Amino acid sequence: xxxxxxxxxxxxQGGQKLAARHPLQRLDSPSRGASALLHTLGxxxxxxxxxxxxxxxxxxxxxxxxxxxFLTTCGLALATLTYALALFSDLTLSPALYRLKNxxxxxxxxxxxxxxxxxxxxxxxxxxxxxxxxxxxxxxxxDLSFHLNPALLLTADLLFFSPPWTLSAAPAIGVSGxxxxxxxFWVEACFAHNGFYxxxxxxxxxxxxxxVLFAGAAAIMAVSTLALKKVYEIVNGKMDSKGSAxxxxxxxxx
Length: 254
Known about the structure:
Pfam families: Far-17a_AIG1 (PF04750). With 254 residues, the chain is mainly α. It has eleven helices and two strands, in the order H-H-H-H-H-H-H-H-H-H-E-E-H. The chain starts with a helix and ends with a helix.
């Protein structure tokens, strides 16, 4: 192939690569570069969290529902699945896995933000509301791996390696409400088998109080969805009425 042909071929490949990436997406993904690095680090963090659960058993480990009684662990499982799909899409350069990752991220990212907000807020008020008296205190590293890292990692994936969300307020409220109701039913099923709630706070509230708590959690998750969408626009810009990217650095337009 002549030099001119090679240049033309490279230009075509470069154009296809840019076309495959949303104009607002800051960095290439799926890719075996920075995207794969972030998703590898995330998978390592999530794996450590589950390793901790298996290697430091407690009364919850033997209870019906295992540690999945905790909203934290449910969110962690979804975050792990999201990042595993992201990493596999990076390694295989699979658009299908990448799209599936983005779909899961619509739920996992705001859910983890909600968990982080609720956990650290309630813990600042009274840690005994979150931790059964027979459970040992979490050291700082596992505490962060459970209750901070997932939100940070999923937010980083959204801001730098994902296309913008198109989810509006109504679907965000619907998804958040459905998750809150599903988790409430799950917690009550665990209580029916174990005779105690995973979070002492639940036991201190009556049915109405728990309904208000879960409704509040659903609202926080819905607001987190819209807040993440807004932060994405601040960081990466947004599409104008003509379908062109606006508020984005010139380097992203090239």
